[in-house]
Design a protein that fits this description.
mainly alpha
């Protein structure tokens, strides 16, 4: 567990170590099957996998990266929409976001397991069943790592979490735990997921009111709460930017007074949350059909 956080070279060596990742996944699967998601060894295994998934897309061996990106390039080039200024350019962008990974292997080995749907479901199972904060945080953190970035892998993993594995209810529960770092990691994961335009309506329906409910009533009182608040605002920004319906949902959840209060604080300590709230307010105001409702 300590070695897995030793930097890129350490991660590379451990990912390449024959049988290591497979053994960790095998152990966790056994613990879940035996209804023992809270033992210390499971926590250690998940924390190692969390660390090994950090910057995975950037650090992937070239053979994997080529197979993922070549398939994406082939699909993109088959679409004959002209250039950046084509009338359907936004649809093309959304289509590229939804480009799937190469077909999943039914029996993944080594580094392939790190983004496989089997392990994604294991993380979601641990989030739902474990009561150990470190296990919950590491499971959320691994999914956060896998959904970071804008390549095909993060979007494919996001789609698995939201649509194929029905992971939002488990993640939503983590928004209401008392442990601040677990809550912060859950919000960061939702912020990543909310960047995927094809998933925004599902995410807004499931968790937008919960995100509003955990916004502080006044200016955040600590660094970790400040960071969490900023991430909530950016997640809400993603969900409402292109959707008047979702902006109205935020309004009906009484989010506006909270966001205004947070945005008006100008002290340096809380500037990150204040800036994020201001960006969200600016975006909300772009929905001109809601101006009269905002004023009320």
């Amino acid at each position: 567990r300590n070695m897995s956080s030793a930097g890129p070279e350490g991660r590379k060596k451990m990912r390449e170590c024959n049988g290591l990742i497979d053994s960790l996944v095998y152990y966790i699967q056994g613990a879940i099957a035996d209804h023992e998601p809270n033992d210390k060894a499971t926590e250690n295994c998940v924390c190692i996998l969390h660390n090994l998934s950090y910057q995975l897309e950037i650090e992937l061996p070239e053979s994997y990266a080529q197979s993922i990106y070549m398939q994406r390039r082939n699909i993109s080039s088959n679409d004959k929409t002209p250039g950046c200024f084509g009338t359907r350019s936004r649809k093309v962008k959304e289509k590229q976001q939804d480009t799937p990974l190469p077909e999943e292997k039914s029996n993944p080995r080594g580094v392939e397991s790190l983004w496989h749907s089997t392990l994604i479901r294991i993380y979601l199972s641990l989030i739902a069943k474990s009561t150990r904060n470190y296990t919950q945080e590491a499971s959320l953190g691994a999914l956060q790592n896998l959904t970071a970035g804008t390549g095909p892998m993060p979007f494919a993993v996001a789609r698995t979490v939201v649509q194929k594995a029905n992971g939002l209810p488990s993640i939503r529960t983590m928004l209401h735990v008392s442990h601040p770092t677990v809550k912060k990691t859950a919000v960061s994961l939702l912020r990543n997921l909310s960047r995927n335009t094809s998933l925004q309506s599902d995410i807004a329906r499931e968790v937008l009111p919960d995100l509003v409910s955990i916004l502080p009533e006044s200016v955040p009182g600590s660094d970790i709460v400040c960071e969490t608040t900023a991430s909530i605002c950016y997640a809400l920004f993603n969900l409402t930017q292109s959707s008047s319906h979702n902006a109205r949902l935020l309004l009906s959840a009484d989010g506006l007074p909270k966001i205004i209060t947070i945005s008006m604080n100008d002290s340096n300590m809380f500037s990150k949350a204040s800036r994020a709230a201001s960006v969200l307010l600016y975006s909300l105001w772009s929905h001109t059909d809601l101006h009269s409702a905002y004023k009320k």
